[in-house]
Amino acid sequence: MNTRLGITAEDQAVADAIARFAAMQLAPRAQETDQQEISTARYVPLLAELGVMGMNLPEQWGGPGVSPTAMILSLVEIARCCAATASMVGAHYLATDSILIGGNDELRARYLPDAAMGAKLGAFALTEPRAGSNPADMATRAQRQGGSYRLTGVKHFISNAGDADFIVVYAKTDPGAGHKGISVFVVDTATPGLSISSPEKLMGIRGAHAFEVALDCEVPLENRLGAEGSGFRTAMQVLDNSRIDVAASSIGIAEAALDASLAWAKERRIGGEPLADKQGIQWLLADMKLRLEAAWMLTLQATAARSAGRRFSLESSMAKLYASEAAGFITDAALQIHGGYGYTREMPLERYVRDARIMRIYEGSSEIQRTVIARSILA
Ligand code: COS
Description:
This protein is α+β, with helices and mostly antiparallel strands. It folds into three domains: about 10-115, Acyl-CoA dehydrogenase/oxidase, N-terminal domain (Butyryl-Coa Dehydrogenase, subunit A, domain 1), CATH 1.10.540.10; about 120-230, Beta Barrel (Butyryl-CoA Dehydrogenase, subunit A, domain 2); about 235-379, Butyryl-CoA Dehydrogenase, subunit A, domain 3, CATH 1.20.140.10. Helices cover about 50% and strands about 15% of the residues. The protein is globular. The mean pLDDT is about 95. Coenzyme a persulfide (COS) binds near residues 126, 133, 179, 311 and 371.
């Protein structure tokens, strides 16, 4: 039972159902998924049945009608058992949020209900080999040619792309206009001229495959989301949402690492005494718990700000920054508590450390979050 502020019985019931599913379906396969780098896209039909693939969407567009808090709790439960699955779901949300925020009703109707029911998987292509933290530097071009656009360029680290049915691609329609020259398009992966690499070799979240996407293809005019030049703003609004999702994934991994540490500290004996009786270990456990709770508070606060319908970049960045850094501390401490056993691949501790590490990098690095926070309080 999660008694933290703002969580209703209804939110909890949703999270409990997802927790049961994750414990039964994801946890037993998480080590194999990681070690054999099996794509977590195979869980899409099961996740869709539980409503997870559309939890970011209103009922009108196929969502199951749960609150943003229930969605965040669900992501925590998924990440607790398999962070790579939470990451795959998060990448799908980046794509469908782009359509929800930037698109018109015709595009929403064409993609979102199918995406919610697991019939279509989405990917989000903003990052490029030479444009990560500063997407305004992107080189991908979209040139208008009568009733269509010619998209040319290369996108990098695109999660889900190899399993996706559609990719939301950000490209420059006006290269001289900085961020105001970016537009956004939905591109079906079957489009001729779109090619996808084999998956990148990643340190962690190895079941969340990321790809390079090369574009030299024609996309119909009606696949543009919103007006020309509105893409940067759409991307930033989408990232405001997704940074809370990353905070939730960080919390899920940290919860798993702390739970494992508490069990180990009680069971493992040193000189006849449980590890848990050593003050050095107790204080470490206390610091882990403290950071986890602070991460929860910031994440629930950001979720409440999101629900309030006003701009919440500050809250979202604070939650992502703090929770991802807390997950780094907590997973590292958990491995230390487990000693040599934690360092083996027999236990999930080393996986938690590797999975947590990306949380400080993707969807805006810790440095970018600090920039957003500083700009917000200085404004
Ligand atoms: N919501 C709505 N509008 C936003 C916004 C948000 N969250 N963030 C910025 N904007 C708007 C600004 O209001 C501004 O609008 P005007 O042009 O009308 O003035 C415009 O977007 C440009 O904003 P800004 O000047 O802040 O843009 P910068 O180029 O300085 O970039 C950061 C800001 C650093 C925050 C942005 O580049 C960023 O988030 N980078 C990280 C990208 C990232 O997360 N990549 C990972 C990809 S997914 S793995």
